[in-house]
């Protein structure tokens, strides 16, 4: 332990009071049970694929059925498999698992000579244009790009033009730790080519979003709003330059405005809305919650195809939406009850050293370790659980380096939601890669840390000042999550 | 011979075995015999796959009606053995641990259009994309690329190539052998090549599993059977296959959707046999018994013996339930995709099998508790 570490501890001492817990570099009984009683113990490829451990044998049936809808490839309508048709016209992927393989995290496309070599799967581009002064962005939270809508679909069914192709180009930027060790980060830039429906609006704002692991979502939804607001107040009162704020978003399942919890900018307020929105936006699958597919006025082939499909369906007396309510509810049950795996090696000396440094550097100010869930009607399994997601679900200014410059509901162009860290160390096992952050630009956990700026600048500086052994311990701790 | 229990410190916290009355086998003896049973099961499965390979080779060399029929028969015969080995999944062992071949061997359901022509899309799939190389490496890389259903290899890819799409209510797929004859069907050369490559890959994957469980070798088995903590994995695998995989994923989903393609071996209409093989595989492990392809019977110290030494009533209950499940599974009529439909008398038989498997799972959890395993995980869908 170098003297620098002591400096770090002194520098960030104030961060302790933010977390509401005493600094606990030591082992806390039960901290390995990241999802409370729902926690599962499997650290292999299937680590993200279990139902909550306390879901009874009988209650698992809905989970298994939901799982099949999560994995199923949707096909074009009309097909002989009426329960699984209705893909597109435009889409990104054919199934939830297409982006969340093994219920896990997607990787950005492979890179050769600094540019992507294939179309992204599991990395989508949100599109919008700036709101005019005084213009209300309404229930979308944004003004969609006029010709292409709110997100880019780079795939389409036969006979329909994909909207465009995405090209990602990376530039490397070097940096140094205080001890002289060099590192490199890669900064992506996004370009569209082969635009099928004319040029983009000149003011178009683009935001890349990678598909994260889908564990513990029901638990995150079960954290009481009051708890999140209290954290925001605590952060502001501490005056350490960390001040998260909740996003306020329209929720289609509650038909009301709620605090945003999901999505990289907390632009979604419930698992149900997230699930319905992804079916609709990413696969072109309609449901009673989202009955319309996005075909803009400029997309005549898309609109004609929709009309043909609607006529064909009504002629056969088939339902007007692709996904019936029962299947939808089961898919939501599935995404709500996917379990969080337990932490590995919580008592290991190096892990505990890393945990101490995590707190000392101030990371826990936003990556709040512990929460207690409230009562969830119909889901006793997720109720009153002590969980360790390492997030406050609040928006923070993360600095210029990470900014997408695209507002989303109340979030501005520099703000991102603190992502939960649980499951982080298993991404490599489950998905075979270590790409992190909202667009997968970080090639490993340390790069992800080094991209932090804005409200997290001081915490990042603390990491830059750590000696090699301290950095290794910090990463070891993150990998134990 | 009898080995004393290892010091408690060496056991996973989840399963500290109380030193119970000095009767029944030692845990390590049960694990040693388990290793023997797993090896024999994979050996018989690999041998059956080699017989399939011989039939495929003969068919590909000179495609004809009889040759296709032989290949189909060999596929059906080989499935009987593979299905029993699924009781060794779900604990991150050689089959489905890191880099395990499970997804490559037995991925399902598959999007047919990913592999070959389908109705209305004659040019669909890898077979018809001539620029894609057809070798084991490329096809392995394409397996599960862009979605878990994008299955390019394994049993069900072979099945799809041999039978074709199952579009009829009353029977399996009806692919004609001329799909493999140059001049009769586009890209027949590539279809032959594809079939050969995926069959060879299956054979080599099964051979590797057989090797990982071979006796007297520095392999997975050697480490696994020495660890008393492995016992929890062995039982948990039975619970997961019973409840999550077989009752849940493979039967309840199909009962719920009543959709024809929601079944494991949909092209060949062989799903009813998959169910029997899985249920039999679970019972094999529980009893430490395996009826080999050559007719001999493997038997030795088993989970049942271990539980019976502590609580005979629980052991007897599980034992009886295992028979009930296997018999219930045997009673499910073919084709499964008709049996699941409302109003079909087969539906009750499927439901009865689900009920039997669930009951058996609850009792396995109880049996695990008897052995000091407090929380047995039985819920992993694929």
Task: Explain what the structure shows.
The complex is a heterodimer of chains A (481) and B (382). Chain A is an alpha+beta fold and 481 residues long. Chain A has helices spanning 3-11, 15-19, 60-71, 96-99, 217-221, 225-238, 271-283, 300-315, 325-337, 349-360, 427-431, 445-450, 457-465, 468-479; strands spanning 90-91, 111-112, 115-116, 123-128, 155-156, 165-176, 182-193, 205-210, 248-251, 256-259, 371-372, 386-387, 395-397, 415-417. In chain A, the strands form seven sheets. A two-stranded antiparallel ribbon of chain A has the order 1-5. In chain A, strands 2-3 form a two-stranded antiparallel ribbon. A two-stranded antiparallel ribbon of chain A has the order 4-8. In chain A, a hairpin with a 4-residue loop joins strand 9 and strand 10. The longest helix of chain A has 16 residues, at 300-315. Chain A is globular, with a radius of gyration of 22 Å. Chain B has 382 residues and is mainly alpha-helical. Chain B is 56% helix and 1% strand. Chain B has helices spanning 27-61, 65-85, 102-106, 112-115, 136-142, 155-163, 188-212, 220-224, 230-257, 271-287, 303-310, 312-330, 336-339, 345-370; strands spanning 290-291, 297-298. In chain B, helix 11 runs antiparallel to helix 12 and helix 12 runs antiparallel to helix 14 (345-370). The longest helix of chain B is centred in the N-terminal third of the chain and has 35 residues, at 27-61. Chain B is globular. The two termini of chain B are 39 Å apart. The model of chain B is unreliable at 1-21 (pLDDT under 50). Chain A binds chain B through residues 40-46, 49-51, 53, 55, 57-58, 60-61, 63-65, 67-68, 71-73, 75, 80-84, 93-95, 97-98, 101-102, 121, 158, 327, 429, and chain B through 14, 90-92, 96-98, 100, 109, 111, 113, 119, 121, 144, 146-150, 167, 243-244, 248-249, 252-253, 256-257, 259-262, 358, 361-362, 375, 377-382. Chain B: Keywords: Signal. Chain B: Residues 1-21 form the signal peptide.
């Amino acid at each position: 332990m170098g003297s620098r570490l002591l400096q770090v501890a002194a520098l960030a001492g104030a961060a302790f009071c933010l977390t509401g817990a005493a600094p606990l570099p030591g082992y806390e009984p039960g901290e390995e049970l990241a999802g409370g009683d729902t926690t599962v113990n499997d650290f292999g490829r299937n680590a993200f694929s279990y139902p909550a451990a306390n879901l009874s044998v009988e209650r698992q049936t809905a989970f298994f059925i939901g799982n099949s809808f999560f994995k199923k490839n949707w096909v074009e309508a009309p097909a002989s498999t009426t329960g699984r048709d209705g893909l597109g016209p435009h889409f990104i992927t054919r199934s939830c698992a297409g982006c969340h393989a093994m219920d896990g995290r997607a990787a950005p496309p492979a890179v050769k000579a600094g540019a992507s070599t294939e179309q992204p799967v599991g990395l989508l581009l949100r599109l919008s244009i700036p709101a005019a002064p005084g213009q209300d962005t309404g229930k979308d939270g944004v003004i969609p790009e006029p010709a292409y809508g709110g997100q880019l679909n780079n795939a389409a069914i036969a006979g329909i033009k994909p909207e465009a192709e995405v090209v990602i180009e990376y530039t490397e930027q070097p940096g140094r730790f205080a001890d002289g060790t060099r590192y490199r980060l890669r900064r992506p830039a996004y370009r569209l080519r082969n635009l099928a429906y004319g040029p983009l609006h000149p003011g178009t704002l683009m935001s890349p979003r990678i598909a994260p692991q889908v564990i513990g979502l029901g638990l995150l939804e079960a954290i009481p709003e009051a708890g999140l607001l209290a954290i925001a107040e605590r952060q502001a009162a501490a005056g350490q330059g960390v001040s998260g704020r909740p996003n306020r978003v329209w929720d289609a399942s509650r038909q009301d405005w709620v605090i945003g919890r999901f999505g990289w900018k907390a632009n979604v307020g419930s698992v149900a809305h997230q699930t319905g929105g992804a079916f609709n936006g990413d696969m072109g699958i309609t449901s009673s919650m989202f009955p319309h597919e996005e075909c803009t006025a400029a997309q005549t082939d898309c609109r004609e195809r929709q009309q043909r499909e609607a006529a064909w369906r009504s002629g056969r007396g088939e339902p007007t939406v692709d996904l019936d309510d029962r299947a939808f509810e089961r898919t939501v049950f599935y995404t709500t009850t996917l379990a969080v795996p337990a932490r590995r090696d919580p008592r290991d000396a190096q892990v505990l050293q890393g945990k101490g440094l995590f707190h000392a550097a101030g990371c826990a100010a936003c990556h709040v370790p512990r929460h207690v869930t409230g009562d969830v009607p119909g889901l006793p399994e997720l109720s009153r659980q002590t969980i360790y997601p390492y997030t406050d679900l609040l928006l923070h200014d993360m600095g210029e380096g990470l900014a997408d410059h695209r507002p989303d509901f109340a979030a501005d162009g520099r703000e991102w939601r603190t992502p939960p860290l649980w499951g982080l160390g298993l991404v490599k096992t489950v998905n075979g890669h270590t790409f992190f952050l909202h667009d997968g630009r970080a090639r490993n956990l340390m790069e992800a840390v080094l991209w932090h700026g804005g409200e997290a600048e001081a915490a990042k500086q603390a990491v830059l000042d750590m000696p090699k052994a301290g950095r290794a311990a910090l990463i070891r701790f993150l990998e134990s999550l | 011979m009898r080995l004393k229990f290892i010091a408690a410190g060496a056991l996973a916290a989840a399963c500290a075995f109380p030193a119970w009355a000095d009767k029944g086998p030692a845990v390590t003896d049960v694990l040693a015999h388990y290793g023997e049973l797993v090896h024999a099961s994979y050996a018989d499965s690999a041998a059956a796959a080699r017989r399939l390979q011989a039939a495929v080779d003969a068919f590909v060399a000179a495609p004809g009606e009889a040759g296709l029929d032989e290949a189909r028969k060999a596929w059906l015969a080989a499935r009987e053995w593979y299905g029993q080995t699924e009781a060794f999944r779900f604990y991150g062992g050689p089959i489905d641990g890191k880099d395990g071949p499970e997804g490559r061997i037995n991925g399902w359901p598959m999007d047919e259009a990913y592999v070959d022509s389908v109705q209305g899309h004659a040019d669909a799939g890898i077979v018809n994309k001539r620029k894609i190389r057809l070798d084991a490496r490329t096809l392995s890389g394409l397996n599960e690329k862009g979605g878990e259903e994008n299955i390019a290899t394994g049993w069900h890819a072979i099945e799809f190539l041999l039978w074709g799409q199952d579009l009829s209510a009353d029977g399996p797929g009806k692919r004609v052998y001329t799909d493999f004859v140059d001049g009769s069907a586009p890209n027949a050369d590539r279809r032959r090549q594809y079939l050969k490559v995926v069959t060879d890959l299956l054979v080599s994957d099964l051979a590797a599993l057989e090797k990982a469980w071979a006796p007297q070798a520095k392999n997975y088995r050697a480490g696994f059977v020495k660890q008393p903590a492995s016992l929890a994995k062995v039982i948990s695998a039975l619970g997961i296959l019973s409840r999550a995989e077989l009752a849940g994923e493979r039967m309840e989903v199909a009962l719920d959707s009543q959709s024809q393609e929601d079944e494991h071996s949909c092209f060949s209409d062989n799903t009813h046999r998959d169910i029997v093989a899985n249920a039999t595989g679970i019972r094999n492990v529980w009893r430490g018994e395996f009826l080999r392809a050559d007719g001999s019977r493997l038997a030795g110290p088993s989970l049942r013996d271990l539980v019976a030494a502590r609580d005979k009533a629980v052991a007897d209950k599980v034992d009886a339930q295992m028979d009930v499940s296997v018999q219930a599974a045997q009673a499910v009529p073919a084709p499964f995709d008709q049996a699941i439909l409302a109003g079909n008398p087969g539906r009750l038989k499927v439901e009865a099998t689900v009920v039997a498997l669930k009951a058996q799972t609850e009792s396995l959890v109880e049996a695990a508790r008897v052995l000091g395993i407090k929380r047995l995980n039985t819920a992993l869908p694929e």
